[in-house]
Write a structure and sequence with these properties.
The chain has 176 residues and is mostly beta strands. It has one domain. Helix content is 2%, strand content 30%. The chain contains one helix and eleven strands, in the order E-E-E-E-E-E-E-E-E-H-E-E. The strands form four sheets. The protein has a four-stranded antiparallel beta sheet. A three-stranded antiparallel beta sheet has the order 1-2-5, with no helix packed on it. A hairpin with an 8-residue loop joins strand 10 and strand 11. The longest helix has 4 residues. The chain is globular, with a radius of gyration of 18 Å.
């Protein structure tokens, strides 16, 4: 089981000043084991490039992790984690940055944040979607990511994370 935006819970004492971290729990004979495994730090936390952005969770965390997905991102047979993460604040600024953090499982519940190495082109000024579906639709051992979003999805100035295939320009978008 994976948990995002946690300031306490099973095996983690609650404190109002806890940073909002992400954890993975193991099950042993259908029983949750504690303490949990602390996952790599949420993407925007403690990075100088994001220090100037206001967040609902300041001063304890920059990052909001509203969704987590488990899939085998690198096809090595181990469950990896994709974390939808954002910097949000009140007022007109709202969503300021967003990213899919890619946490690679190296076995024995050891995860590394490989986001910058695996997806350096990701536009952090885009929206992320809460309704991601991951599937191997062609039985080709390659994961396809399906998303849906509000109207900014088709606005290249806002999103930019899709491709049009030649010959499919009419009738909407077609992704890879």
């Amino acid at each position: 089981m994976i948990v995002g935006d946690s300031v306490g819970g099973a095996g983690v004492p609650y404190l109002p000043t806890n940073p909002m971290l992400n954890y993975a729990y193991k099950y042993n004979a259908s029983v949750l084991t504690t303490p949990p495994v602390l996952l790599p730090k949420p993407y925007f936390n403690d990075k100088p490039a994001y220090a100037g952005f206001a967040s609902f969770w300041d001063p304890y965390s920059k990052t909001h992790t509203p969704r987590l997905w488990i899939t085998d991102l690198n096809q090595d047979g181990l469950p990896d984690i994709m974390a939808g993460q954002e910097i949000w604040t009140a007022g007109a600024a709202g969503l300021q940055k967003a990213v899919f953090q890619l946490l690679i499982n190296h076995g024995n519940m050891v995860f590394t944040d490989d986001t910058d190495a695996l997806a350096p082109e990701f536009n952090q000024d885009s929206f992320i979607d809460y309704s991601v579906r991951l599937a191997d639709v062609m039985a080709a051992a390659s994961i396809r990511c399906f998303i849906s979003s509000h109207p900014v999805f088709y606005d290249a100035a806002k999103q930019g994370q899709y491709r049009r295939r030649a010959g499919h320009e009419q009738g909407g978008l077609s992704g890879q």
